[in-house]
Amino acid sequence: MSDASTSAKGDLKLNNISKSYGDFKAVDDLSLIIPEGSFFALLGPSGCGKTTTLRMIAGLEEPTSGSIFVGQTDITEMKPYKRPVNTVFQNYALFPHLTIFENIAFGLRRRGINDVEGAVNKVLDLVELPHLAQRKPTQLSGGQQQRIALARAIVNRPALLLLDEPLGALDLKLRRQMQIELKWIQKEVGLTFVHVTHDQEEAMTMADTIAVMNEGQIEQMGSPADLYDNPKTAFVANFLGQSNLIKGTISGNDGDSHIVDLFGQKISLQKNRSHAVDNSIYAGIRPEKFRISRLGTSTSGNILTGGHIEDVSYIGVSTQYQVEMPWGQELMVFEQNDDGVAPFSKGEEVNISWEPIFTFGLHGDEDANAGSEVNPDEDE
Amino acid sequence: MVALAKKVDINNSIASLKQKVAMPYLLLLPGMLWLIVFFLSPILTLVSTSTKEPGLGFGEFIQTYRWANYTDALVNLQEQFIRSFVYALIATAIALAIAYPLAYAIAFKSGKWKNVLLVLVVAPFFCSFLLRTIAWRQILAQDGIVFKSLVTLHLISPDTRLTSSAFAVITGLAYNFLPFMTLPLYASLERIDPRTLEASGDLYANGIVTFRKVTVPLSMPGVVAGTLLTFIPAAGDFVNAQILGNPSTTMIGNVINAQYLQTANYPLAATLSFLLMLMILALVLVYIRKSGTEELV
Questions:
Q1: What is the complex's ipTM, to 2 decimals?
Q2: A21, A171, A259, B219: which is deepest, by most CB within 10 A?
Q3: Is residue B295 less than 8 Å (CB to CB) from chain A?
Q4: Eight-class DSSP state of A376
């Protein structure tokens, strides 16, 4: 067969694609380049348009406008069965009437590949389930079915492998294991993986690049560390991990840094980590970056004084504190239990400090709660 | 005290175990009784009647264990037996050909009309079976629309008669059992996860290949159930042949009917009934084996 399924190679390009259902815009003017060979994650809450985007790449939905390219080949109008794309479906969608062997061989047989048996056995070895070749899908556990679904897709060596919440149905322990395994397999086969998930931890563990989606658009794209350390919007700051966002104003400059006034207390913020558009700003600090100190002890860096411990939860590796600040806001602080300092108790008056390089700045008009109400464990 | 308590505990658990073992049998009891009274005993009566010979008076029979009744019946009435199975087979094939696209459309393409269409499939049951069969005489009559259109299309000559023919009998059978074909087919098509169809397209199968390699195999339980539910009653039917047929389209059901109600030859009627049952049973077993759908059901 001389269709694109064997020839098209290269980066995946989405050019201004939109998808509307009546008045509802599931995907809104989205543009994206996914480099060949990368592990890319589309991360977002339910209904953010990530699955719709994936289905448009697979050809299962047609974009209302925009175009999709693999390398130089325009695949926007191409039928799904002609695309150089394979999908690992959310609930695996294995063929219940075929054996595991025939499930994996399905795509090869349709394309008239010669050595079906050799290819299937090789991929069964890769996912470490060669002994299950003659079983039926219903005789397999969830984790095994997941691996077979993966094998059925990668055996075709597509230019692009799409994974739609592939680990959503597995329990936590198995999910962790599969995350590592998926990452390893991706390196091993060298295919481009596009992974859709609502689980931020899963995306951070596996992907080279993450695009955080919200309401049909990409909020921010970058490496997991980029997104976590320097989020550009409140949505990203809250959806990826947790953040303390404190309202303030930029009151001055000091070299490469802004001086930010937070309810009368001055802190410093590197200019290149500020995404504010005017003087109105949210100063953001991740809970584990904070240090708590008793009154009278010396601290360095940015300091906020006048806090009261509101709540203490000991969770083994760390202790989580809720600290009420003079302006009424409760800040979240995660302290590692490794410094020999006696735990703080409820009601104690404390100061909070952190290294200035950890501060990030967000536009002061944003909704500080954006992205924090969505439950990341919720299924679509 | 502790030991005693333990003993009581063990006794209790044995009692509850006994209860657990007895429970399923207790639940089965009403059904078993029903089967014994209304299935097993009639079958035994049937077999016992089938080996009797005529006595002195009309409708009087003596048990002589004459198993030759069976070979006699087979030899004398093989034509009607074969005809019954051939008619039932053709009617089943026609019903399948009509019901599959229908069930497919209802399951995958009907959208909000799904329930309305399902009600329409069973709607004929609101009208008497006899009445609907008699209506087919009207439908196929010389002045009916079917006859006229076929003549206009030069598919049949104006001298042909559609009524009182094998064609009419088979048409009637296919029509009458169509819902029994459609509903199981619909049920099994409806159960197919649309994502398996998407997966097939994703794995380089176009629409036709997907239908052949995924949809059809996954709907096999429905095909098997539907063909059985059509074939079995069609093979034993006598109403269609009586109302829509002629003397040369007699099916085995008609013979049983006549032997029982008109000739009062109960042993022959019983022999034929039992033979028909055995043959259908054998055919069904072979069919289920061959279709290999046990694990999909």
A1: 0.81
A2: B219
A3: yes
A4: T
